[in-house]
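Quiz preparation item.
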């Protein structure tokens, strides 16, 4: 009888586990426990006709913003995990039934994928429903349950915050209950933004209200170190060893995002290169050097056909030696990039012209990230 009783308990447990896994994969909301503190940042961008300048700023400043997050330190001295998500809203090319809203990317640490999707955005006339897009992001995204994690939502646009059938007050209230800070970025005059409800939206969810000039062009300061950093980036790329069915495509995506960053000049390419030298740039899903740090067995388990041509005839011992060599090369190159970037930042600080840079997307977001990060005991060098 006892054996039968234990069998029934085991059967029920297995049924429950199977049901949980099915539900998780169906909804796409598997909350995988992360080691250490995590920063989750969701960016909600208005892609209606008047927002070309905003999208251009986002494209040109992505790596600068990511770098700001990447240099944060947790209370234990470790660098936090970084997860980014992206939504577009207010675009007539999107489904009216969905409120002209589209999830471009769920939370991911695949920064090349985020960059690629950001560069694919285009504008079209539409209706901007701030309350609905906030509610959608709160519902669809797998937000962390940990109170130690920093959870931020940035919404940018230029129409009244009050539009749509979903109450922005209820949406922002729900965000606060979930521990998600809502930061609002009005593209236009600050007084106008306040009158249109953008400040109240931020106030309701303990966030920051900002106004920017979305048509301002990003100001880059060229430095004597940009070309050296770019040359090191080329060497860095040679240390990435793809594996798996989609590995080669991901490697090509890496190079494509280099081109996208370089299209805004050498200074922006230097920002991306520095990001690639940091812990924020993780590619375990396709790069065998990163993946082997978590699971060394992948080196021997990966099929030869799923490896680069130069590795397909290698013995297991040769594979391991090759990956070790690439890992050591990468660490050395990353250190060189970081050293040059320190000099680069010092040069920029001394040679940045006075301007309305605080009216730009990156400056506004970086200020909010630091302020809200301090509440979660995150620190930045020099602060």
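Solution:
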């Amino acid at each position: 009888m006892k054996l039968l009783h234990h069998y029934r308990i085991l059967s029920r447990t297995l049924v429950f586990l199977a049901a949980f896994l099915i539900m998780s994969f169906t909804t796409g909301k598997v909350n995988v426990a992360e080691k250490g503190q995590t920063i989750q940042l969701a960016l909600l961008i208005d892609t209606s006709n008047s927002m070309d300048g905003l999208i251009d700023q986002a494209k040109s400043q992505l790596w600068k913003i990511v770098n700001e997050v990447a240099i944060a330190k947790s209370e234990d001295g470790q660098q936090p995990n970084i997860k980014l998500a992206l939504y577009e809203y207010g675009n007539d090319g999107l489904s009216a039934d969905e409120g002209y809203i589209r999830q471009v990317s769920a939370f991911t640490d695949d920064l090349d994928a985020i960059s690629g999707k950001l560069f694919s955005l285009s504008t079209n006339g539409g209706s901007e429903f701030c309350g609905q897009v906030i509610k959608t992001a709160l519902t669809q995204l797998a937000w962390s349950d940990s109170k130690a994690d920093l959870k931020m939502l940035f919404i940018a646009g230029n129409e009244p915050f009050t539009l749509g059938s979903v109450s922005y007050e209820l949406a922002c209230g729900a965000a606060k209950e979930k521990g998600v800070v809502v930061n609002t970025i009005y593209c236009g005059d600050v007084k106008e933004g306040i009158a249109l409800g953008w400040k109240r939206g931020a106030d309701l969810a303990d966030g920051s209200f900002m106004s920017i000039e979305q048509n301002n062009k990003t100001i880059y300061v060229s430095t004597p170190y940009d070309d050296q950093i770019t040359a090191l980036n080329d060497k860095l790329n040679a240390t990435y060893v793809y594996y798996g069915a989609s590995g080669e495509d991901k490697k090509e995506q890496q190079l494509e995002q280099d081109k996208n960053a370089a299209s805004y000049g050498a200074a922006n390419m230097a920002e991306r290169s520095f990001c690639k030298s940091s812990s924020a740039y993780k590619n375990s899903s396709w790069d065998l050097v990163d993946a082997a740090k978590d699971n060394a067995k992948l080196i021997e388990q990966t099929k030869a056909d799923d490896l680069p041509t130069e590795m397909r005839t290698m013995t297991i011992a040769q594979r391991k030696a090759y990956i070790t060599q690439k890992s050591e090369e990468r660490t050395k190159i990353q250190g060189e990039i970081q050293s040059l970037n320190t000099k680069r930042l010092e040069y920029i600080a001394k040679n940045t012209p006075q301007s309305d840079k605080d009216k730009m997307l990156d400056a506004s977001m970086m200020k909010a990230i630091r302020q809200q990060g301090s509440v979660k005991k995150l620190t930045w060098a020099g602060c």
